[in-house]
Amino acid sequence: MKQILSLTEAQYPIDSYAELHPIMNAAAAHYKEKAKVFETGLQRLDEFGIRRTFHGFYYISHYYPLRAMSEISGQRAKEILSEMAGSTFEVYLHYPFCEQLCSFCHFHKKITSLDNVERRETEVIDTLIAELQLNTQIMGQRIKARSLQLGGGTPSLMTNQGLVRLLKACEKYLDIQSDAEIKTEIYPKHYDENYLREKLRILKSFGFTDLVIDLESGNQKTLDFIQRKNSSLDDYLRLVEICIEEGFTSFITALMAGLPYETYDSMYSTVETLSEIKELSVINVFPTIMRESDPISKKLELNPEAFNDSSTRANMWLMARMALHDKGFIDGPISYLHRPAIRPEQQADKFECVNLIGFGPSSFGYLNGPHNDWAGQYFNFCSTEEHRKRINEGYPAIWRIGQYDNEERARRKIIFGLANVKTENLLAIEKNYNVSIDKIMGKTLNALHSLDLIELDKSIHGIRFTDQGLARLEEITYYFYSKFAKDKCDEIPDTRDENYKWLINQHYAVTVRREDRLRFEKYEVSMSNNFMEKLRY
Question: Going from the N-terminus, what domains does the chain have, and what CATH number goes with each?
Answer without folding.
Answer: 406-537 (1.10.10.920)
